[in-house]
Amino acid sequence: MSVKLKGDRKINKKFTTKQKALKINLNENIYGTFSEIGAGQETVRYFFQAGAASKTIAKAMSAYDKVFSDTIYGVEEDGRYVTEKRLRKMLRHETNLLEERLERFDTSERLFFSYSNTVTTIDFAKKFKGHGWVGIRFQTHPTEDYNEIVIHIKFNENEAKLQQETLGMMGVNLVYGAFYLHDEPKELIKSLYDNIDMDKIEIDMIHFSGPLFQNIDNRLMSLYLLKYNITDAVMFDPDGNSLLPAQELFKKNILLLRGSFRPVTKVNMDLFEKSMKLFFQEPGVTKENTNIIFEITLQNLRSLNEKSEEDVDDQDFLNRAELLCSLGHNVMITDFRRYFKLIDYINTQTNAKLGLAMGTYNLMMIFDEQYYQDVSGGFLEAIGRLMQRDTKFYLYPLKNHQTGEITTVQNVPIPEKYRFLFDYFKNQGRFVEITDYDPNIMDILTRNVFQMIQKGEKGWEEMLPKGIAEMIKEKNLFGYLK
């Protein structure tokens, strides 16, 4: 059998978009379809223009009209067409057609694929820049099951024509990466921006599936989007599946708990449970219309990494994610070191209620002006953006482990010149004190638990929520040794 991919793979980041398309066209085994909706047929255009496309492209189409599209791919009950669900329907429909219409004994060495996108570009008023779903379903051996790579993109350019051209280049990069970089997913993700300026388009969700990727953890793939400065926020569910942040936040009430979770402790869970109880007392807030999120910042991951201040330990990240997922919560990783940046981001996704669960120490940091020296308006701009909506801060008391003193909202030290602002927002009910906390767990510190695990000391198990210690031991997380 003359099916060749791996022997032909040379990672050359200097390849132009046309050269990548031509290399695909010249591989006599790669054969498939292109279906593009919403921004023309920009990806397949590169393959046609590169030459030698006749033995690569089985079909290219754009079922732009909704009635025609529904006839081919089925009617969407919610009436939405730019969705992940629609994209996956397109991918499966087109590969199924290939299998039905071509006899395998006549194409025994062909590697079938379908590339699809469904997007909406910038609107006429230029207020909504557009977004879309892009994916490929492909084989690397004629007898294997199909693999899929799906991404969600957000356009940043201000002209539809420019957005179309950028989408076309990224589509070529995706097709090329699927066939020639699939066993190096980190390089594949980086390659999606070959010949594209990163500020033109954002990828905020990526998901790998299929036999080639059975050992890939999509939580880690999401992290790479942050590490490579491709996006500012990624999410995944308790099963480790990639989520689209905009979709999870849209029109939802949000309760968010930020922490290092290295590991998650009884203090974290007490803060979470007491904050949730208070948040659900807010008018209009129910379990059905609320999304609870545990958040870790990229800065947090880096600052706790003992190997390097500039990088993130992938395994350390997965250890934390594993524990949080086991508790049944969605996890968001962001590059928002300061809270006002996080609130700016959430404000673009939802106008519903927002609650932030944090320790009183974090409140002291918010009112420390040294953290805003690079903000043009300094502290006042930052606090204005932080308080621009009816955000509630649920504050857990801080214990001085030397003196035993407890710091709460009532006695928290705030710089005198900003005390009037603190009092104003406090009187508005924006700073909510957690009073029914558990005093018996106040001495638990995450960093101490982590050190005890690594040193093989006893007693750390009692500091963690039920089931967490057992998981750490079972999976040897955080350097635990039996």
In short:
The protein is of the alpha/beta class. 36% of the residues lie in helices and 19% in strands.
Description of the molecule:
By secondary structure, the chain is of the alpha/beta class. The chain has 2 domains: 6-216, Alpha-Beta Complex (Maf protein), CATH 3.90.950; 247-479, 3-Layer(aba) Sandwich (Rossmann fold), CATH 3.40.50.620. Helix content is 36%, strand content 19%. The protein has 17 helices and 16 strands. A hairpin with a 5-residue loop joins β7 and β8 (242-243). It starts with 16 loop residues before the first helix and ends in a 7-residue tail after the last helix.
Blueprint (SSEs and pairs):
Blueprint: H1 17-26, E1 30-37, H2 42-50, E2 57-61, H3 66-73, H4 84-101, E3 111-120, E4 131-138, E5 147-155, H5 160-180, H6 185-191, E6 201-209, H7 218-227, E7 233-236, E8 242-243, H8 245-249, E9 253-258, H9 266-279, E10 290-297, H10 298-303, H11 314-326, E11 330-334, H12 339-347, E12 354-359, H13 360-366, H14 378-386, E13 391-396, E14 398-399, E15 406-407, H15 419-427, E16 431-433, H16 446-455, H17 468-475
Parallel strand pairs: 1-2, 1-3, 9-10, 9-12, 10-11, 12-13, 13-16
Antiparallel strand pairs: 3-4, 4-5, 5-6, 7-8, 7-11, 14-15
